[in-house]
Specification:
The protein is mainly alpha-helical and about 55 residues long. About 50% of the residues lie in helices and about 0% in strands.
Length: about 55
């Protein structure tokens, strides 16, 4: 019984990995974070000018 559960677990894990890797890439950055990762990890400066005060 334990062997059957381990085999089922391995199949589910492989299916989940395939589902994640099979998705199309979106240019929204890191999903729910609103694309903030693009501005943090980008080499371009942000488009909004910041004035020193």
């Amino acid at each position: 019984m334990l062997t059957l559960l381990m085999i089922l677990d391995a199949i589910v894990c492989i299916a989940l990995i395939a589902a994640v890797l099979g998705q199309e890439a979106k240019s929204d950055g890191m999903g729910g974070l609103g694309g903030g990762a693009e501005t943090v990890f980008s080499s371009k400066p942000s488009s909004s000018p910041s004035s020193p005060s």
